[in-house]
Amino acid sequence: MKSLFGAVLVTAFGLGAGAALAQTATPPGQAQTCRVCHGLDGMGTNPMIPNIGGQSADYLSKQLQDFRAGRREDPQMSIIARDLTDEDIKALSDWYGSITATYALPQ
């Protein structure tokens, strides 16, 4: 019922209502750090930052584990990920993986 309510709000009021609804959900604590670059909705805040909302939770978990272990490197992500616990990684991966992303093919 809660997701139906969210869908109705987004349909009725557009993206503004969707953003407000997203802020009332309970993201994991570490999402406050992630939202600076990836947004709480998983949309990168500039073209150099990937959109992670709607990605597979398994994929996101693997990437965060690789950043944490040094198997994958990025100036910001390597620093951020090194302090994440296994529980943080699971919570973040589940959060961003649960987002529904839609795509449109070019005309």
From TrEMBL:
Highest taxon, organism lineage: Bacteria
Pfam families to which the protein is assigned, alphabetical: Cytochrom_C
Record has Electron transport as a keyword: yes
Signal peptide: 1-22
SUPFAM superfamilies: Cytochrome c
InterPro entries named in the record: Cyt_c-like_dom, Cyt_c-like_dom_sf, Cytochrome_c_Oxidase_Subunit
Keywords: Electron transport, Heme, Iron, Metal-binding, Signal, Transport
Positions of the Cytochrome c domain: 13-100
Protein name (database record): Cytochrome c domain-containing protein
Organism: Paracoccus acridae
